[in-house]
Amino acid sequence: MTNQLQFNMTFPKFYFDRSFTFESGLHVIYGESGSGKSALINQILELEKGQEYFHLTNINRPEEFQKVFQNPDTQIISSTLGGELAFSLECRSNDQEYISTKLASLKEKLFFKCAEHRHPATLSGGEKEMLNIVTAFSVNPQLLLIDDGLSFLNVNGKQNMLGYIHNQIVETNCIVLWLTSDCNDLQFGKTQWELSLSSFNEWNGNISPLPAVKHKSQSNEITIACHDLFFSYNGDKDLFNAFNMKIDDFRALGITGSNGCGKTTLAKLLLHIERSESGSITLTKAGEKAAMAYLEQFPEKMIGADSLDTFVQRLVMAGKLDKYKINHAVKNLKNCQLEWEQIRYKTALDLPWSTLRVVLTIWLLNSEYDLLILDEPTFGLGRQQVLTLTHHLRLYLKNKHLIIISHDTEFIYTFCDRVFEMDQHTIITEKNNITSNG
User: Fold this and answer.
1) Which residue in 207, 208, 200, 158 sits closest to 26, CA to CA?
2) What is residue 24's DSSP assignment?
3) Residue whose C-alpha is closest to residue 244's, from 281, 285, 283, 278
4) Separation in Å, CA 114 to CA 135, 212, 388, 407
5) How far apart are CA 334 and CA 328, in angstroms?
6) Rounded CA gap, 271 and 180, in Å?
7) Which of 78, 165, 216, 375 is the most exposed place for a label (fewest CB within 10 A)?
């Protein structure tokens, strides 16, 4: 048995060959999307052999380990919250008395109140991440590997979970490797590292700021309005109760707030994916119904088992994608280091999550919609990739509109000309604050 993680890492094309040792504590590893963060985790766990850029040898790791997946849905298998919390404990043949005692303790550590019978599918992305981290620690691992597993959390949610993780490290002497696409997360590590396509080194400490986006003109054509809106999930949690709001005069509206406050639900109510119990919610352009498209925080749900090419053809057949815009979109993808001919026939299962998100975003930006709703568009993207995405979004805003739902307040406040803070029901503009009647 060992209380250290050790391995040798080689990048053959770049003559890089080093040995690494990680001891108890939180170690943060930053890397752009596609740099091999998931591959590093899988090689540490010996789930795959060396990949194109690097490979590990002489791996020495603790016997008890857990992995937290980038996609929180991948880790959740039970149909109830209580069942999910108990699953790992039951798999280890613990007696029922121990499981019941442990289950009560785990529910107190979730940082959100939720009925035990509630289906995990109704949780927000951040709440699912909290659930997955708590269940991973429930079996006292000696090594925990987190694959972007805190990226749906807002600032308070992330601070709460980091406090919880540090307490678990103190109690169990656990080694935690947190691999992230957000360079701002490096500040939380006992040690800080950067993984690239050519090396794995300690972080140099430089973070490029996001440039503020100056909107040439706002528009009062688009209006979003809620009137006495009421919505709850099976009566367990009231997200909106006689909620009133009106926002106009924007090009890019940011919606932010705590995990589980209803950001994604608001978008689904707008698109009639969810139905309110009473009241109304509308989005209009010059008084008429606006044409909207929505890219949700779990982008694989948008194309299902179809290929990317099938998705594009559906846009063409629906009259939303002009065939002359196809070449323009392909050039946009190339600017994002993506070759359309190499990925067009791939499905959501064949592509990294962040790649799928960028590809779908580019195609929607080139389609004929009055407004796009992007839910967590920066998730899984490194700093340079966020800068590239910002460039394409800025071009789109010359004559169209965006609603961006995100916990990424740095991106929201540098990109959007209006921000709706859902926790305070406050609309923040460049000039003043306006409080809604919700």
Assistant:
1) 158
2) S
3) 281
4) 15, 38, 38, 21
5) 10
6) 31
7) 216
**Distance (Å, rounded) from C-alpha 352 to C-alpha 66?**
21
Kindly report, residue by residue over 355-390, the tens digit of the pLDDT: 899 999 999 999 999 999 999 999 888 888 888 888
Residue 175 identity: I
Contacts of 78 (CB under 8 A, 6+ apart): 84, 86, 87, 120
Place of tokens 């963060």: 37
Bridge partner residues of 57 (DSSP): 8
Q: Which of 405, 401, 438 is nearest to 419 (CA)?
A: 405
Q: List Cβ neighbours of 176 (8 Å cut-off, separation of 6 or more).
A: 25, 26, 27, 143, 144, 145, 146, 165, 169
Output 109 or 176, whichever has higher pLDDT: 176
Per DSSP, the residues of 157-175 read: HHHHHHHHHHHHHHHH--E
- Helix (H) / strand (E) element for 293: namely strand 292-295
One-letter amino acid for residue 216 of the chain: K
List, for residues 282-311, the tens digit of each pLDDT value: 998 888 888 899 998 888 888 888 999 999
**If you write DSSP's letter for every residue of 375-432 in order, what string do you get?**
ESTTTT--HHHHHHHHHHHHHHTTT-EEEEE-S-HHHHHHH-SEEEETTTTEEE-SS-
Find the helix or strand (DSSP H, E) in which 16 lies.
Answer: strand 16-22
Length of the chain: 438
Q: How many CB atoms lie within 10 A of CB 193?
A: 19
What is the spatial order of strands in the sheet that 143-147 belongs to? 65-68, 143-147, 175-180, 25-30, 191-195, 200-202
Tokens for 68?
């937290």
Q: How many CB atoms lie within 10 A of CB 330?
A: 18
The count of C-alpha atoms lying within 13 angstroms of the C-alpha of 306, restricted to the half-sphere facing its C-beta, is: 13
Amino acid at 48: E
In sequence order, what are the residues at sequence separation of 6 or more whose Cβ sits closer than 8 angstroms to the Cβ of residue 12? 55
CA distances from 20 to 107, 190, 193 (A): 36, 15, 11
What sign does the CA torsion over 431, 266, 362, 125 have?
positive
